[in-house]
Design a protein that fits this description.
Layout lengths: L1 E10 L2 E9 L5 E3 L4 H5 L19 E4 L4 E4 L2 E2 H7 L2 H10 L5 H13 L7 H6 L7 H15 L8 H6 L1 H24 L12 H10 L10 H13 L7 H11 L4 H12 L7 H15 L4 H8 L18 H17 L4 H14 L2 H5 L7 H11 L6 H23 L26
Helix pairs in contact: 3-10, 3-19, 4-8, 6-8, 6-12, 8-9, 8-19, 9-10, 10-15, 10-18, 10-19, 11-12, 11-19, 12-19, 13-16, 13-18, 15-18
Bound molecules: carboxymethyl coenzyme *A (CMC).
Length: 431
């Protein structure tokens, strides 16, 4: 970051100058940190579309060009040449791991895969109809209670135990997800296997039955690893900003990522992947080929889920990668899902329609990911839980960045538009 030029602002006839700062990719910002002290004014930016909430070294997005890089490395190269755990290491620690470092990281994650037996009782305490995101957020919070040394809310101590806590969360979030699936179906829980890799172990925890071990095809394992990798981090999105916000108050890593899960749940954020499949199923059931739905979306009667993005005004590069992966995994599994055809038609129609072109609405990561998860056998209401497993490294890296570099609690201001001062009216006089 460098400070070279100034931005001038005239308020009530007086000129004030503020430094302009530039990021390593030439992104420019007006540094308004002294604005209120100097002028009494604050900035107003509903939805934070023009606000840089932090300086970060983790991920870079150029939404106009459709670029996403983690620690400088393009997502396309990671998708083609890396794995989820290798990418997780890069995101958390800033460099690609050397072979020995990756082995150690993997071993730490494998060793942490089991949950304390008491968790069975926690799961039994939830009704089978519980939404898996509610269970996941609760369980991640509960997990901190089992590791008090790692979740002390004493910043120095939490950082001292950071490596253990990070590996533990990446590992156990997957075990929690699988146990939630089995609890809701009334199936016996599986124990993790140390001999399996991250994704295969997850599929074993999910789908192995007492009478039959589940062995995934290489295509399924690869597609799921790619899904996790593509979700591993994404700059200051709603859930990551939430994690940073919670962390800024000094809260431990477990509490912060549990809050991230809650933020992710909504349909405008991580909930969009299941909303896409529900939308495609509705279109299919109604006999529409997608054209009526496009009209409804243009008239504000419907929203084309999996389309549009606050930052990308071009193709989300993750959607391009996953669009191709969807095709090949379906082929490999010998599946012919009519939803994929409808998705392709919707994409073509939207890309040539003025409404979508003018608003620069392109497919985002969620547009094809649901189709792939469905093909793997993941139920629709678990899709956002899958997103959370993938996003865990990003949340962890952002928590670490806040814990290591930021001393200030995040505390935005507001413009109050409620009533002016008025007197309390006693109950008998409230007409
Ligand atoms: N279908 C139809 N119209 C849309 C859509 C859509 N999916 N997205 C945006 N628009 C329209 C919107 O109505 C508005 O039109 P107008 O200017 O006429 O009022 C214009 O495009 C700008 O939209 P916006 O709502 O101001 O954009 P935003 O930056 O606030 O919202 C978004 C971004 C992702 C919430 C939104 O595009 C959306 O709701 N998309 C569908 C949900 C979705 O797929 N979310 C996943 C995002 S990617 C995963 C993640 O990072 O979490």
């Amino acid at each position: 970051m460098s400070a070279e030029s100034q931005a001038k602002i005239i308020l009530d006839g007086k000129e004030h100058a503020f430094p302009v700062i530039t990021g390593t990719e030439s992104e420019k910002a007006i540094d308004v940190r002294k604005l209120r002290n100097e002028t009494g004014y604050i900035t107003y930016d509903d939805g934070y579309g023009n606000t840089g909430s932090c300086q970060s070294q983790i991920s870079f997005i150029d939404g106009e060009k459709g670029i996403l890089r983690h620690r400088g490395i393009p997502i396309e190269q990671l998708a083609e040449r890396s794995t989820f755990l290798c990418t997780a290491y890069l995101i958390i620690y800033g460099e690609l791991p050397k072979a020995a470092e990756l082995d150690k990281f993997r071993a730490k994650i494998a060793a942490a895969s089991n949950l304390h037996e008491d968790f069975r009782h926690h799961f039994q305490g939830f009704p089978p109809s519980s939404h898996p995101m509610a269970v996941q957020s609760s369980m991640l919070s509960a997990l901190g209670c089992y590791y008090p040394k790692m979740s002390s809310n004493d910043r120095e101590q939490d950082l001292e135990y950071f490596d253990d806590a990070a590996a533990l969360l990446i590992s156990k979030v997957r075990t929690i997800a699988a146990m939630t699936y089995r609890m809701r179906k009334g199936l016996p829980f599986n124990y993790p296997r140390r001999d399996l890799r991250y994704v295969e172990n997850f599929l074993h925890l999910m789908f192995t039955e007492p009478y039959a071990e589940y062995v995934p095809s290489p295509e399924v394992s690869k597609a799921l690893d790619l899904f996790f990798l593509l979700h591993a981090d994404h700059e200051q999105n709603c859930s990551t900003s939430t994690v940073r916000m919670v962390a800024s108050g000094g809260a431990n890593l477990f509490a912060s990522v549990a809050a991230g899960v809650s933020a992710l749940w909504g349909p405008l954020h991580g909930g969009a992947n299941s909303a896409v499949v529900r939308m495609l199923e509705q279109i299919h059931a109604s006999g529409d080929d997608g054209s009526q739905f496009i009209e409804d979306a243009k008239n504000g009667k419907a929203r084309l889920m999996g389309f549009g993005h606050r930052v990308y005004k071009n193709y989300d590069p993750r959607a391009k990668i996953f669009g191709k992966a969807a095709e090949s995994v379906m082929k490999a599994l010998g599946l012919d899902d009519p939803l994929l055809d409808i998705a392709r038609k919707l994409e073509q129609a939207a890309l040539s329609d003025d409404y979508f072109v003018e608003r620069k609405l392109y497919p985002n990561v969620d547009f094809y990911s649901g189709i792939v998860l469905k093909a793997i056998g993941i139920p629709t209401d678990m899709f956002t839980v899958m997103f959370a497993i993938g996003r865990m490294p990003g949340w962890i890296a952002n928590w670490k960045e806040v814990a290591e570099t930021s001393k200030r609690i995040h505390r935005p201001r507001q413009i109050y538009i409620g009533p002016n001062q008025r007197d309390y009216v006693s109950l008998d006089k409230r007409g």
